[in-house]
Amino acid sequence: MKKLKRYQYERYAILCQLAYPDADAQYQKILDPFHERQLVDKYGRMSVRILWVENKKEVIIVFRGSLGFKDWFANLFFIPYRLRQLNRSFFVHWGFARLLAQPMYSSTKTSEDALPLRELLVKVLEPLRAQGKRFSFIGHSSGGAVAVLMADYFQRRDPKSVKRVVTFGQPAVGTRSWYKHYTLHHRTYRICCDLDVITFMPPFPFYFWHVGKMLWLHDDKIYENTPTHRRFFISLQSWLLRPITYHYMRKYIRNKTLFDEH
Which residues are in the Fungal lipase-type domain (predicted)? Predict the structure, then answer.
């Protein structure tokens, strides 16, 4: 597995932030080099952003996370659902499988042209795939869950189509059968930050499984593939000791940049 580089991490993280309506205006300039296509839900809210540059091979597909009570409520339905991905089926979180089937329409069409997300995304990306471009699927929270499901689907359709998968704060998607048959473990990076409670969801660690390589950002370090239970207890210990650690000199040194603006 190739390492995820710093500039890639930063770019993907900002693009995930830009998927939300309250994104900082200062980040908008990162979109300047890209051609763009949006997939919009029935409320007219952008749910998927597709970005590419003509002379580059990578197409970046960004999935927005939960937005509003209805989305969050669906995330709480931990009921396993049998999902078929071409030649294979497995059990996944019902709430995330629902997102694949939600009616969506392209920003270039009207709501009457709505199709299920998975079907519409295949249709929109096909011309780019025909040009030899490869897809990077990224997403935050439930958007990260949809990203791994869609990446696996495209990988089964065309084993050369997926470049990488990067998710931020992603909950677990499916059961052991999903983990066992996931096709992109070696190209998937799951970024977790400190004690992000959503990354421990659903709360059934031996039933719902994460996929890919985990990169845990904690205490100014990157930890790789730390077991869930160990990550939880280290985070809890760090949280309990945090008032003491603020006394360490490294905390004072880390804040040196504040004086550039003082």
Answer: 61-204
Confidence (pLDDT) at 250: 60
Instruction: Evaluate whether 72 touches 66 at the Cβ level (below 8 Å).
Output: yes
Which amino acid type is present at position 17?
A: Q
CB 58 within 8 A of CB 167: no
Smallest Cα–Cα separation from 68: which of 167, 141, 147?
141
Residue 203, domain extent: 6-260
Structural domain contains residue 1: no
- Per-residue model confidence as pLDDT tens digits over 119-158: 999 999 999 999 999 999 999 999 999 999 999 999 999 9
Read off the CATH number of the domain in which 214 is found. 3.40.50.1820
CA distance 76 to 66: 12
- Count the domains in the chain: 1
